[in-house]
Amino acid sequence: MISEKTFASEFSGFWAETLPFLTPQAIAELNISGTAMGDGRHQWMKPLTCSGDNSNNDVIAETAFGLFAEALKAEEPVVELCKDVALIHRIEESARGRVFGLRRGAVERPQSVYPNTSEAIHLANRLETYFEDFPLELIVIQPRFKGCGILDSCYGDILAKKSLCELKMVDRNLRSADIRQVLAYCALNYRSSQYEINTVTILNPRRGLEFSFGIEKLAEHASGKTATELFHQITTFLADFETVHQPS
Q1: Are residues 77 and 165 in the same domain?
Q2: Structural domain of residue 89, as residue ranges?
Q3: Which of 88, 136, 185, 237 has an alpha carbon within 20 to 30 A of 67's alpha carbon?
Q4: 1-5, 123-127, 230-234, 243-247: lowest mean pLDDT where?
């Protein structure tokens, strides 16, 4: 079984055939289409100023997401939650465990160079600001998607109303693998019919940018097919992969 990130970043032949119009030029155009994140009242977010050392960004991102998720669960503002030093420590420890657990052979850094807690809090505050007008009952943290064939069950980041939101707290442009990843989630959802998803949004609170796409428009733009046709092609590939590639 493979993860959704492995599926999105590898299988280049399949993706080239399935998404023939998701070219480097198309990705460059999508990057230009990004808009500044806000809270619905035109309070636009600027890029986050950081120390310049991005070696801890993965852990900072996991910590920020953990803080935001805990704030929603507790129905408390992030700023209030952060008064609980022991809770912040537990969230940071959990974030480090997930990141270093995913990196095979990675060596955990000494305590003195662990991520900047204030930076994680700042990112969590940005997520809180962005989602503050969404009714709490319409926000699902880490929606689970049932697996298909070689692709294991996996979790998205946030489902808000009918929009699947994927977080990329990185200091880089949007990549084709980011698009393939959200399309993989949507394909799994097409097969299982677990959620109603009409749009996908890639949020980058570090850069203060969001990229929102209607499912049908994104499918047509990337593949020239309808969303149903594209998702059927993806799930058929996943379901039949082991059969088709069995040694003769």
Answers
A1: no
A2: 50-132
A3: 185
A4: 243-247
Retrieve residue 195's tokens.
Answer: 């959620």
pLDDT level of residue 111 (50, 70, 90 thresholds)? very low
Tokens of 229: 């046709």
State the CB neighbour count (10 A cutoff) for residue 12. 8
| 220 part of a folded domain | yes
For 131, the token pair is: 């989602």
Record the pTM.
0.89
Contacts 24+ apart (CB under 8 A), 29-32: 30/174, 30/179, 30/211, 31/173, 31/174
Boundary residue ending a domain (132, 159, 187): 132
Beta-strand (E) ranges in 114-196?
A: 139-141, 144-145, 154-155, 158-160, 163-167
